Protein backbone atom coordinates (compact mmCIF):
# COMPACT_ATOMS: atom_id res chain seq x y z
CA UNK A 1 0.00 0.00 0.00
CA UNK A 2 1.10 3.55 -0.70
CA UNK A 3 2.83 4.81 2.48
CA UNK A 4 1.17 8.23 2.00
CA UNK A 5 -2.29 6.74 2.02
CA UNK A 6 -4.33 7.47 5.17
CA UNK A 7 -5.56 3.89 4.99
CA UNK A 8 -2.17 2.67 6.16
CA UNK A 9 -3.25 3.60 9.69
CA UNK A 10 -6.63 1.97 9.37
CA UNK A 11 -5.36 -1.60 9.58
CA UNK A 12 -6.91 -2.16 12.99
CA UNK A 13 -10.23 -0.84 11.74
CA UNK A 14 -10.22 -3.39 8.92
CA UNK A 15 -9.38 -6.18 11.34
CA UNK A 16 -12.21 -5.12 13.62
CA UNK A 17 -14.57 -4.92 10.67
CA UNK A 18 -13.58 -8.40 9.48
CA UNK A 19 -14.02 -9.77 12.99
CA UNK A 20 -17.44 -8.13 13.25
CA UNK A 21 -18.42 -9.55 9.89
CA UNK A 22 -17.24 -12.99 10.97
CA UNK A 23 -19.28 -12.74 14.17
CA UNK A 24 -22.36 -11.63 12.25
CA UNK A 25 -21.98 -14.50 9.77
CA UNK A 26 -21.45 -16.93 12.64
CA UNK A 27 -24.62 -15.58 14.27
CA UNK A 28 -26.60 -16.02 11.08
CA UNK A 29 -25.24 -19.52 10.52
CA UNK A 30 -25.84 -20.37 14.15
CA UNK A 31 -29.38 -19.12 13.83
CA UNK A 32 -30.05 -21.28 10.81
CA UNK A 33 -28.83 -24.27 12.83
CA UNK A 34 -31.21 -23.52 15.66
CA UNK A 35 -34.33 -22.60 13.73
CA UNK A 36 -36.51 -25.72 13.56
CA UNK A 37 -37.05 -27.02 10.06
CA UNK A 38 -40.77 -26.51 9.86
CA UNK A 39 -40.73 -23.10 11.59
CA UNK A 40 -43.14 -20.63 10.00
CA UNK A 41 -44.92 -23.21 7.82
CA UNK A 42 -48.35 -22.09 9.06
CA UNK A 43 -47.46 -19.22 11.36
CA UNK A 44 -44.86 -18.18 13.90
CA UNK A 45 -44.45 -21.68 15.34
CA UNK A 46 -43.04 -25.08 14.45
CA UNK A 47 -45.28 -26.56 11.77
CA UNK A 48 -44.39 -30.14 12.71
CA UNK A 49 -45.84 -29.51 16.19
CA UNK A 50 -49.33 -29.88 14.71
CA UNK A 51 -48.63 -33.38 13.39
CA UNK A 52 -46.83 -34.33 16.60
CA UNK A 53 -49.84 -33.41 18.69
CA UNK A 54 -52.18 -35.18 16.30
CA UNK A 55 -50.12 -38.38 16.54
CA UNK A 56 -50.02 -38.48 20.32
CA UNK A 57 -51.76 -41.59 21.67
CA UNK A 58 -55.26 -40.92 22.94
CA UNK A 59 -55.37 -41.32 26.71
CA UNK A 60 -58.95 -40.45 27.53
CA UNK A 61 -61.88 -42.67 26.60
CA UNK A 62 -64.89 -40.88 28.04
CA UNK A 63 -67.45 -42.37 30.42
CA UNK A 64 -68.43 -45.11 27.97
CA UNK A 65 -64.95 -46.61 28.15
CA UNK A 66 -65.58 -47.43 31.83
CA UNK A 67 -69.05 -48.85 31.33
CA UNK A 68 -68.10 -52.40 30.27
CA UNK A 69 -66.29 -53.10 33.53
CA UNK A 70 -67.93 -50.71 36.06
CA UNK A 71 -71.56 -50.87 35.07
CA UNK A 72 -72.79 -50.21 38.62
CA UNK A 73 -70.86 -46.92 39.04
CA UNK A 74 -71.67 -46.02 35.45
CA UNK A 75 -75.39 -46.36 35.98
CA UNK A 76 -75.36 -44.61 39.33
CA UNK A 77 -73.32 -41.76 37.92
CA UNK A 78 -75.44 -41.35 34.79
CA UNK A 79 -78.56 -40.88 36.88
CA UNK A 80 -77.03 -38.49 39.42
CA UNK A 81 -76.22 -34.79 39.79
CA UNK A 82 -72.68 -35.40 38.55
CA UNK A 83 -73.79 -36.84 35.20
CA UNK A 84 -72.18 -33.90 33.44
CA UNK A 85 -68.82 -34.52 35.17
CA UNK A 86 -66.55 -37.01 33.42
CA UNK A 87 -65.31 -40.03 35.37
CA UNK A 88 -61.81 -39.20 34.19
CA UNK A 89 -61.99 -35.66 35.65
CA UNK A 90 -62.10 -37.13 39.14
CA UNK A 91 -60.05 -40.27 38.57
CA UNK A 92 -57.61 -40.25 35.69
CA UNK A 93 -57.23 -41.02 31.99
CA UNK A 94 -58.40 -44.52 31.12
CA UNK A 95 -55.12 -45.33 29.37
CA UNK A 96 -53.30 -45.14 32.73
CA UNK A 97 -55.60 -47.83 34.10
CA UNK A 98 -56.51 -50.16 31.24
CA UNK A 99 -54.92 -51.31 28.02
CA UNK A 100 -58.01 -50.74 25.88
CA UNK A 101 -56.81 -52.90 22.96
CA UNK A 102 -56.17 -55.92 25.18
CA UNK A 103 -59.04 -55.02 27.52
CA UNK A 104 -56.74 -55.64 30.51
CA UNK A 105 -56.17 -53.66 33.66
CA UNK A 106 -52.56 -52.41 33.68
CA UNK A 107 -52.57 -50.19 36.78
CA UNK A 108 -54.75 -49.08 39.62
CA UNK A 109 -56.95 -46.07 38.93
CA UNK A 110 -56.30 -43.14 41.31
CA UNK A 111 -59.06 -42.48 43.83
CA UNK A 112 -58.92 -39.02 45.40
CA UNK A 113 -60.97 -39.52 48.49
CA UNK A 114 -60.40 -36.03 49.86
CA UNK A 115 -62.10 -32.73 50.52
CA UNK A 116 -59.69 -31.08 48.07
CA UNK A 117 -61.24 -32.98 45.17
CA UNK A 118 -64.66 -31.45 45.83
CA UNK A 119 -63.21 -28.01 46.66
CA UNK A 120 -61.61 -27.93 43.22
CA UNK A 121 -65.06 -27.31 41.80
CA UNK A 122 -67.31 -26.37 44.72
CA UNK A 123 -65.26 -24.05 46.94
CA UNK A 124 -67.04 -20.71 47.13
CA UNK A 125 -65.15 -18.18 45.00
CA UNK A 126 -66.15 -14.74 43.75
CA UNK A 127 -64.97 -15.69 40.30
CA UNK A 128 -67.35 -18.66 39.88
CA UNK A 129 -70.69 -18.16 38.18
CA UNK A 130 -73.20 -17.32 40.91
CA UNK A 131 -75.61 -20.10 39.87
CA UNK A 132 -73.03 -22.86 40.20
CA UNK A 133 -73.46 -24.86 43.45
CA UNK A 134 -70.66 -23.75 45.75
CA UNK A 135 -70.22 -23.80 49.51
CA UNK A 136 -68.11 -22.33 52.29
CA UNK A 137 -66.88 -25.83 53.05
CA UNK A 138 -66.23 -25.45 56.76
CA UNK A 139 -69.42 -23.58 57.46
CA UNK A 140 -71.38 -25.98 55.23
CA UNK A 141 -70.17 -29.12 56.98
CA UNK A 142 -70.65 -27.75 60.48
CA UNK A 143 -74.09 -26.29 59.79
CA UNK A 144 -75.24 -29.67 58.50
CA UNK A 145 -74.10 -31.26 61.73
CA UNK A 146 -70.99 -32.94 60.33
CA UNK A 147 -67.40 -33.04 61.48
CA UNK A 148 -64.83 -31.03 59.50
CA UNK A 149 -62.39 -33.82 58.62
CA UNK A 150 -60.24 -34.29 55.48
CA UNK A 151 -62.85 -36.64 53.97
CA UNK A 152 -65.89 -34.91 55.48
CA UNK A 153 -67.75 -34.59 52.18
CA UNK A 154 -68.13 -38.36 51.83
CA UNK A 155 -70.02 -38.68 55.09
CA UNK A 156 -73.05 -37.19 53.43
CA UNK A 157 -72.40 -37.18 49.68
CA UNK A 158 -71.70 -40.04 47.31
CA UNK A 159 -69.28 -38.66 44.72
CA UNK A 160 -71.06 -40.53 41.93
CA UNK A 161 -74.47 -39.25 42.81
CA UNK A 162 -73.99 -36.49 45.36
CA UNK A 163 -77.61 -35.80 46.33
CA UNK B 1 -51.18 -19.29 51.44
CA UNK B 2 -53.81 -17.12 49.78
CA UNK B 3 -53.17 -13.37 49.51
CA UNK B 4 -55.68 -11.01 51.03
CA UNK B 5 -58.19 -9.93 48.41
CA UNK B 6 -61.00 -7.43 48.27
CA UNK B 7 -63.78 -7.22 45.73
CA UNK B 8 -63.92 -9.31 42.58
CA UNK B 9 -60.79 -10.78 41.03
CA UNK B 10 -60.47 -13.17 38.15
CA UNK B 11 -58.49 -16.25 39.15
CA UNK B 12 -55.56 -15.09 37.00
CA UNK B 13 -55.56 -11.64 38.63
CA UNK B 14 -54.69 -13.09 41.99
CA UNK B 15 -51.12 -14.09 41.30
CA UNK B 16 -48.34 -11.51 40.66
CA UNK B 17 -46.85 -13.05 37.53
CA UNK B 18 -44.34 -10.31 36.79
CA UNK B 19 -42.17 -10.56 39.86
CA UNK B 20 -39.27 -8.63 41.31
CA UNK B 21 -37.19 -9.80 38.33
CA UNK B 22 -39.35 -7.76 35.98
CA UNK B 23 -38.71 -4.79 38.28
CA UNK B 24 -34.95 -5.34 38.03
CA UNK B 25 -34.88 -5.62 34.25
CA UNK B 26 -35.97 -2.07 33.38
CA UNK B 27 -33.97 -0.81 36.35
CA UNK B 28 -30.73 -2.30 35.04
CA UNK B 29 -31.31 -1.34 31.39
CA UNK B 30 -32.11 2.16 32.62
CA UNK B 31 -28.77 2.38 34.38
CA UNK B 32 -27.10 1.35 31.12
CA UNK B 33 -28.87 4.03 29.11
CA UNK B 34 -28.06 6.74 31.65
CA UNK B 35 -24.39 5.80 32.01
CA UNK B 36 -24.04 5.66 28.25
CA UNK B 37 -25.49 9.14 27.90
CA UNK B 38 -22.84 10.56 30.24
CA UNK B 39 -20.04 8.95 28.25
CA UNK B 40 -21.58 10.30 25.05
CA UNK B 41 -21.73 13.82 26.44
CA UNK B 42 -17.94 13.62 26.40
CA UNK B 43 -17.33 11.46 23.34
CA UNK B 44 -19.88 13.03 21.01
CA UNK B 45 -20.53 16.50 22.34
CA UNK B 46 -17.00 17.03 23.61
CA UNK B 47 -18.09 18.34 26.99
CA UNK B 48 -14.68 18.49 28.67
CA UNK B 49 -16.10 18.48 32.20
CA UNK B 50 -17.06 14.85 31.63
CA UNK B 51 -13.60 13.83 30.55
CA UNK B 52 -12.73 12.21 33.90
CA UNK B 53 -15.81 10.04 33.48
CA UNK B 54 -15.95 9.31 29.76
CA UNK B 55 -14.22 5.94 29.98
CA UNK B 56 -15.59 4.95 33.33
CA UNK B 57 -19.15 5.65 32.20
CA UNK B 58 -18.61 3.50 29.13
CA UNK B 59 -17.25 0.63 31.23
CA UNK B 60 -20.22 0.96 33.60
CA UNK B 61 -22.68 0.83 30.73
CA UNK B 62 -21.02 -2.32 29.35
CA UNK B 63 -20.93 -4.12 32.71
CA UNK B 64 -24.58 -3.39 33.42
CA UNK B 65 -25.67 -4.27 29.90
CA UNK B 66 -23.92 -7.62 30.25
CA UNK B 67 -26.34 -8.63 33.02
CA UNK B 68 -29.44 -6.82 31.79
CA UNK B 69 -30.93 -10.03 30.41
CA UNK B 70 -30.22 -12.07 33.53
CA UNK B 71 -33.37 -11.14 35.50
CA UNK B 72 -35.44 -12.15 32.49
CA UNK B 73 -33.68 -15.50 32.21
CA UNK B 74 -34.20 -16.12 35.91
CA UNK B 75 -37.86 -15.21 35.54
CA UNK B 76 -38.45 -17.74 32.77
CA UNK B 77 -39.58 -21.16 33.85
CA UNK B 78 -37.54 -22.52 30.95
CA UNK B 79 -34.52 -20.22 30.63
CA UNK B 80 -33.11 -22.38 27.81
CA UNK B 81 -36.06 -21.25 25.70
CA UNK B 82 -35.17 -17.58 26.20
CA UNK B 83 -32.96 -17.75 23.12
CA UNK B 84 -36.07 -18.39 20.99
CA UNK B 85 -37.07 -14.73 21.13
CA UNK B 86 -33.79 -14.01 19.36
CA UNK B 87 -33.72 -16.89 16.87
CA UNK B 88 -37.37 -16.97 15.91
CA UNK B 89 -38.88 -13.61 16.81
CA UNK B 90 -42.58 -13.14 16.15
CA UNK B 91 -42.88 -9.58 14.98
CA UNK B 92 -46.52 -9.23 15.88
CA UNK B 93 -45.25 -9.03 19.47
CA UNK B 94 -43.25 -6.13 20.84
CA UNK B 95 -41.11 -8.61 22.77
CA UNK B 96 -39.54 -9.65 19.46
CA UNK B 97 -37.69 -6.34 19.49
CA UNK B 98 -35.55 -7.51 22.38
CA UNK B 99 -33.05 -9.63 20.46
CA UNK B 100 -32.41 -7.09 17.77
CA UNK B 101 -32.19 -4.05 20.04
CA UNK B 102 -30.14 -5.76 22.71
CA UNK B 103 -27.69 -7.46 20.35
CA UNK B 104 -27.07 -4.45 18.16
CA UNK B 105 -26.64 -2.12 21.13
CA UNK B 106 -24.24 -4.60 22.68
CA UNK B 107 -22.15 -4.68 19.52
CA UNK B 108 -22.01 -0.89 19.28
CA UNK B 109 -21.01 -0.63 22.93
CA UNK B 110 -18.31 -3.30 22.60
CA UNK B 111 -16.87 -1.63 19.52
CA UNK B 112 -16.86 1.75 21.21
CA UNK B 113 -15.10 0.33 24.27
CA UNK B 114 -12.53 -1.26 22.01
CA UNK B 115 -11.75 1.91 20.10
CA UNK B 116 -11.57 3.99 23.27
CA UNK B 117 -9.28 1.58 25.10
CA UNK B 118 -7.25 0.39 22.12
CA UNK B 119 -4.12 2.38 22.91
CA UNK B 120 -4.23 1.20 26.54
CA UNK B 121 -4.56 -2.37 25.33
CA UNK B 122 -1.51 -2.00 23.10
CA UNK B 123 0.50 -0.35 25.90
CA UNK B 124 -0.33 -3.18 28.24
CA UNK B 125 0.56 -5.77 25.61
CA UNK B 126 3.89 -4.08 25.00
CA UNK B 127 4.68 -3.90 28.72
CA UNK B 128 3.81 -7.45 29.68
CA UNK B 129 4.96 -10.92 28.68
CA UNK B 130 3.81 -14.49 28.62
CA UNK B 131 0.14 -15.29 28.74
CA UNK B 132 -0.84 -11.75 29.59
CA UNK B 133 0.91 -10.46 26.51
CA UNK B 134 -0.89 -12.99 24.38
CA UNK B 135 -4.20 -11.99 25.85
CA UNK B 136 -3.71 -8.28 25.22
CA UNK B 137 -2.19 -8.86 21.79
CA UNK B 138 -5.30 -10.81 20.85
CA UNK B 139 -7.47 -8.04 22.33
CA UNK B 140 -5.59 -5.55 20.13
CA UNK B 141 -6.30 -7.84 17.16
CA UNK B 142 -2.55 -7.98 16.56
CA UNK B 143 -2.25 -4.39 15.33
CA UNK B 144 0.10 -2.23 17.39
CA UNK B 145 -0.44 1.03 15.55
CA UNK B 146 -0.54 3.91 18.06
CA UNK B 147 0.50 6.62 15.62
CA UNK B 148 -1.28 9.98 15.94
CA UNK B 149 -3.10 9.24 12.68
CA UNK B 150 -4.40 5.94 14.00
CA UNK B 151 -5.48 7.59 17.26
CA UNK B 152 -7.22 10.37 15.39
CA UNK B 153 -9.07 7.72 13.41
CA UNK B 154 -10.02 5.97 16.65
CA UNK B 155 -11.46 9.19 18.02
CA UNK B 156 -13.46 9.79 14.86
CA UNK B 157 -14.90 6.28 14.91
CA UNK B 158 -15.60 6.54 18.62
CA UNK B 159 -17.57 9.68 18.01
CA UNK B 160 -19.63 8.02 15.28
CA UNK B 161 -20.28 4.93 17.42
CA UNK B 162 -21.22 7.04 20.43
CA UNK B 163 -23.57 9.02 18.22
CA UNK B 164 -25.20 5.85 16.89
CA UNK B 165 -25.32 4.58 20.45
CA UNK B 166 -27.51 7.41 21.73
CA UNK B 167 -30.60 6.60 19.68
CA UNK B 168 -29.96 2.90 20.27
CA UNK B 169 -29.78 3.34 24.03
CA UNK B 170 -32.98 5.36 23.84
CA UNK B 171 -34.61 2.69 21.69
CA UNK B 172 -33.59 -0.16 23.96
CA UNK B 173 -34.91 1.59 27.01
CA UNK B 174 -37.86 3.26 25.34
CA UNK B 175 -38.83 -0.19 24.12
CA UNK B 176 -38.96 -1.47 27.69
CA UNK B 177 -41.36 1.35 28.50
CA UNK B 178 -43.27 0.58 25.32
CA UNK B 179 -43.88 -3.00 26.51
CA UNK B 180 -45.85 -1.58 29.42
CA UNK B 181 -47.30 1.46 27.68
CA UNK B 182 -48.77 -0.68 24.92
CA UNK B 183 -50.83 -2.97 27.19
CA UNK B 184 -54.24 -1.51 26.60
CA UNK B 185 -55.99 -3.81 29.06
CA UNK B 186 -54.18 -2.21 31.97
CA UNK B 187 -55.04 1.42 32.68
CA UNK B 188 -52.05 1.86 35.00
CA UNK B 189 -49.67 0.97 32.16
CA UNK B 190 -51.44 1.95 28.99
CA UNK B 191 -50.21 5.44 28.18
CA UNK B 192 -48.01 6.75 25.36
CA UNK B 193 -46.11 8.67 28.04
CA UNK B 194 -44.77 5.42 29.45
CA UNK B 195 -41.72 5.02 27.14
CA UNK B 196 -40.83 8.68 27.68
CA UNK B 197 -41.12 8.39 31.45
CA UNK B 198 -38.98 5.26 31.35
CA UNK B 199 -36.34 7.06 29.30
CA UNK B 200 -36.07 10.07 31.55
CA UNK B 201 -35.99 8.04 34.72
CA UNK B 202 -33.31 5.90 33.03
CA UNK B 203 -31.17 8.99 32.54
CA UNK B 204 -31.75 9.97 36.16
CA UNK B 205 -30.73 6.58 37.53
CA UNK B 206 -27.70 6.27 35.22
CA UNK B 207 -26.29 9.68 36.12
CA UNK B 208 -27.00 9.10 39.81
CA UNK B 209 -25.21 5.76 39.65
CA UNK B 210 -22.17 7.38 38.06
CA UNK B 211 -22.03 10.12 40.69
CA UNK B 212 -22.00 7.47 43.41
CA UNK B 213 -19.54 5.15 41.66
CA UNK B 214 -17.22 7.99 40.64
CA UNK B 215 -16.97 9.37 44.15
CA UNK B 216 -16.41 5.92 45.62
CA UNK B 217 -13.80 5.05 42.96
CA UNK B 218 -11.89 8.29 43.57
CA UNK B 219 -11.90 7.68 47.31
CA UNK B 220 -10.62 4.12 46.80
CA UNK B 221 -7.91 5.25 44.42
CA UNK B 222 -6.98 8.28 46.50
CA UNK B 223 -7.53 10.56 43.53
CA UNK B 224 -9.18 13.98 43.73
CA UNK B 225 -12.86 14.27 42.86
CA UNK B 226 -13.09 16.75 39.98
CA UNK B 227 -15.37 19.57 41.06
CA UNK B 228 -16.33 20.39 37.46
CA UNK B 229 -17.40 16.83 36.78
CA UNK B 230 -19.54 16.72 39.91
CA UNK B 231 -21.21 20.06 39.36
CA UNK B 232 -21.86 19.26 35.70
CA UNK B 233 -23.39 15.92 36.61
CA UNK B 234 -25.45 17.55 39.33
CA UNK B 235 -26.83 19.98 36.74
CA UNK B 236 -27.74 17.22 34.30
CA UNK B 237 -29.18 15.10 37.06
CA UNK B 238 -31.32 17.99 38.25
CA UNK B 239 -32.57 18.65 34.73
CA UNK B 240 -33.46 15.02 34.06
CA UNK B 241 -35.05 14.46 37.44
CA UNK B 242 -37.24 17.54 36.99
CA UNK B 243 -38.38 16.27 33.59
CA UNK B 244 -38.89 12.78 34.88
CA UNK B 245 -40.84 13.86 37.98
CA UNK B 246 -42.91 16.28 35.94
CA UNK B 247 -43.95 13.57 33.56
CA UNK B 248 -44.65 11.06 36.29
CA UNK B 249 -46.89 13.64 37.95
CA UNK B 250 -48.46 14.74 34.67
CA UNK B 251 -49.59 11.22 33.98
CA UNK B 252 -51.28 10.97 37.35
CA UNK B 253 -52.82 14.42 37.00
CA UNK B 254 -54.25 13.55 33.59
CA UNK B 255 -55.86 10.45 35.03
CA UNK B 256 -57.12 12.37 38.04
CA UNK B 257 -58.53 15.20 35.99
CA UNK B 258 -60.12 13.03 33.32
CA UNK B 259 -61.88 11.02 36.03
CA UNK B 260 -62.43 8.15 33.66
CA UNK B 261 -63.58 4.92 35.26
CA UNK B 262 -60.00 3.73 35.83
CA UNK B 263 -59.34 6.58 38.27
CA UNK B 264 -61.44 4.65 40.79
CA UNK B 265 -58.86 1.88 40.88
CA UNK B 266 -55.76 3.99 40.41
CA UNK B 267 -56.55 6.49 43.15
CA UNK B 268 -57.18 3.60 45.50
CA UNK B 269 -53.95 1.95 44.39
CA UNK B 270 -51.90 5.08 45.00
CA UNK B 271 -53.35 5.79 48.42
CA UNK B 272 -53.41 2.21 49.70
CA UNK B 273 -51.27 -0.50 48.13
CA UNK B 274 -48.63 1.89 46.78
CA UNK B 275 -48.89 4.64 49.38
CA UNK B 276 -45.40 4.00 50.72
CA UNK B 277 -43.59 3.19 47.50
CA UNK B 278 -45.33 5.89 45.46
CA UNK B 279 -46.02 8.81 47.78
CA UNK B 280 -43.24 8.35 50.33
CA UNK B 281 -40.49 7.01 48.08
CA UNK B 282 -41.16 8.01 44.50
CA UNK B 283 -42.62 11.45 45.16
CA UNK B 284 -41.31 12.75 48.48
CA UNK B 285 -38.24 10.89 49.74
CA UNK B 286 -36.78 10.20 46.30
CA UNK B 287 -38.37 13.13 44.46
CA UNK B 288 -38.93 16.28 46.46
CA UNK B 289 -35.88 15.95 48.72
CA UNK B 290 -33.28 15.41 45.96
CA UNK B 291 -35.04 18.13 43.97
CA UNK B 292 -34.30 20.57 46.80
CA UNK B 293 -30.80 19.24 47.56
CA UNK B 294 -29.72 19.28 43.91
CA UNK B 295 -31.36 22.67 43.49
CA UNK B 296 -29.10 23.98 46.24
CA UNK B 297 -26.05 22.40 44.58
CA UNK B 298 -26.89 23.81 41.16
CA UNK B 299 -27.97 27.29 42.22
CA UNK B 300 -25.29 27.87 44.84
CA UNK B 301 -22.55 26.03 43.00
CA UNK B 302 -20.08 28.91 43.13
CA UNK B 303 -20.26 29.46 46.86
CA UNK B 304 -20.11 25.83 47.80
CA UNK B 305 -17.31 23.94 49.46
CA UNK B 306 -16.30 20.80 47.57
CA UNK B 307 -17.04 18.53 50.51
CA UNK B 308 -20.57 19.87 50.85
CA UNK B 309 -21.19 19.57 47.13
CA UNK B 310 -19.92 16.01 47.08
CA UNK B 311 -22.02 15.03 50.07
CA UNK B 312 -25.17 16.67 48.77
CA UNK B 313 -24.84 15.11 45.31
CA UNK B 314 -24.02 11.74 46.86
CA UNK B 315 -27.09 11.81 49.09
CA UNK B 316 -29.36 12.98 46.28
CA UNK B 317 -27.97 10.35 43.94
CA UNK B 318 -28.58 7.55 46.42
CA UNK B 319 -32.12 8.83 46.99
CA UNK B 320 -32.71 9.05 43.25
CA UNK B 321 -31.43 5.53 42.71
CA UNK B 322 -34.04 4.47 45.23
CA UNK B 323 -36.66 6.67 43.58
CA UNK B 324 -36.19 5.06 40.19
CA UNK B 325 -36.28 1.59 41.72
CA UNK B 326 -39.52 2.57 43.48
CA UNK B 327 -40.88 3.90 40.19
CA UNK B 328 -40.15 0.59 38.43
CA UNK B 329 -41.73 -1.27 41.33
CA UNK B 330 -44.82 0.92 41.26
CA UNK B 331 -45.28 0.42 37.55
CA UNK B 332 -44.57 -3.31 37.37
CA UNK B 333 -46.07 -4.53 40.65
CA UNK B 334 -48.69 -1.79 40.96
CA UNK B 335 -50.12 -2.78 37.60
CA UNK B 336 -50.79 -6.28 38.91
CA UNK B 337 -52.38 -5.33 42.21
CA UNK B 338 -55.86 -4.77 40.83
CA UNK B 339 -58.29 -6.87 38.84
CA UNK B 340 -58.54 -6.42 35.09
CA UNK B 341 -62.26 -6.05 35.70
CA UNK B 342 -61.36 -2.99 37.83
CA UNK B 343 -63.55 -4.20 40.67
CA UNK B 344 -61.10 -5.80 43.08
CA UNK B 345 -57.66 -5.59 44.63
CA UNK B 346 -54.89 -7.69 45.95
CA UNK B 347 -54.05 -6.03 49.24
CA UNK B 348 -50.31 -6.61 49.58
CA UNK B 349 -47.37 -8.06 47.76
CA UNK B 350 -44.20 -8.86 49.66
CA UNK B 351 -41.60 -10.73 47.63
CA UNK B 352 -40.06 -13.67 49.40
CA UNK B 353 -36.48 -13.45 50.58
CA UNK B 354 -35.15 -16.76 49.29
CA UNK B 355 -37.55 -17.61 46.48
CA UNK B 356 -36.21 -18.17 42.97
CA UNK B 357 -37.32 -14.66 42.03
CA UNK B 358 -36.96 -13.28 45.54
CA UNK B 359 -35.06 -10.44 47.13
CA UNK B 360 -31.80 -12.36 47.49
CA UNK B 361 -31.80 -13.37 43.82
CA UNK B 362 -32.44 -9.75 42.80
CA UNK B 363 -29.65 -8.51 45.05
CA UNK B 364 -27.23 -11.10 43.68
CA UNK B 365 -28.03 -10.17 40.10
CA UNK B 366 -27.61 -6.51 40.93
CA UNK B 367 -24.25 -7.25 42.54
CA UNK B 368 -22.74 -8.90 39.44
CA UNK B 369 -22.20 -5.70 37.39
CA UNK B 370 -20.18 -4.21 40.24
CA UNK B 371 -17.94 -7.29 40.25
CA UNK B 372 -17.62 -7.01 36.47
CA UNK B 373 -16.71 -3.37 36.86
CA UNK B 374 -13.93 -4.20 39.31
CA UNK B 375 -12.61 -6.83 36.88
CA UNK B 376 -12.83 -4.36 34.00
CA UNK B 377 -10.91 -1.82 36.07
CA UNK B 378 -8.22 -4.47 36.74
CA UNK B 379 -7.88 -5.35 33.05
CA UNK B 380 -8.27 -1.87 31.58
CA UNK B 381 -7.91 0.92 34.15
CA UNK B 382 -10.47 3.59 33.32
CA UNK B 383 -8.79 6.44 35.20
CA UNK B 384 -5.14 5.83 34.30
CA UNK B 385 -5.09 8.37 31.48
CA UNK B 386 -5.94 11.07 34.06
CA UNK B 387 -3.00 10.34 36.33
CA UNK B 388 -0.29 11.26 33.86
For the largest interface, the chains and their residue counts are: A-B, 22 and 27 residues
Count of β-strands of chain A: 2
Instruction: Give the rounded overall mean pLDDT of chain A.
Output: 91
Spatially, the strands of the biggest sheet of chain B line up as 1-2
Distance between the termini of chain A: 97 Å
The biggest sheet of chain A, with number of strands, parallel, antiparallel or mixed sense and barrel status, is:
2 strands, antiparallel
Oligomer: heterodimer
Keywords (chain B): Cell membrane, Membrane, Transmembrane, Transmembrane helix
Subcellular location (chain B): Cell membrane
Pfam families (chain B): NrfD
Protein name (chain B): Polysulfide reductase NrfD
Descriptive account of the structure:
The complex is a heterodimer of chains A (163) and B (388). By secondary structure, chain A is an all-alpha fold. Chain A has a domain at 112-163. Chain A has eight helices and two strands; from the N terminus they run H-H-H-H-H-E-E-H-H-H. Chain A has helices spanning 11-34, 48-54, 64-67, 71-78, 87-90, 115-122, 137-143, 153-156; strands at 98-99, 104-105. A two-stranded antiparallel ribbon of chain A has the order 1-2. The radius of gyration of chain A is 32 Å and the shape is elongated. The N and C termini of chain A lie far apart (97 Å). Chain B is globular. Chain B has 14 helices and two strands, in the order βααααααααααααβαα. In chain B, helix 8 packs antiparallel against helix 12 and helix 11 (275-299) packs antiparallel against helix 12. Chain B folds into two domains: 20-182 and 351-388, no CATH class; 223-349, no CATH class. The longest helix of chain B is centred in the middle third of the chain and has 34 residues, at 148-181. Chain B has 388 residues and is an all-alpha fold. The model of chain B has no long low-confidence stretch (mean pLDDT 93). Chain B has a two-stranded antiparallel ribbon with strand order 1-2. Helices cover 71% and strands 2% of the residues of chain B. Classes of the chains: A mainly alpha (163), B mainly alpha (388). The interface between A and B is medium-sized, with 22 and 27 residues. Chain A: InterPro entries: Multihaem_cyt_sf (IPR036280), Multiheme_Cytochr_ET (IPR051829). Chain A: Keywords: Membrane, Signal, Transmembrane, Transmembrane helix. Chain A: The chain crosses the membrane at residues 12-30. Chain A: This is Cytochrome C. Chain A: It comes from Candidatus Sulfomarinibacter kjeldsenii. Chain B: InterPro entries: Electron_transfer_protein, NrfD-like.
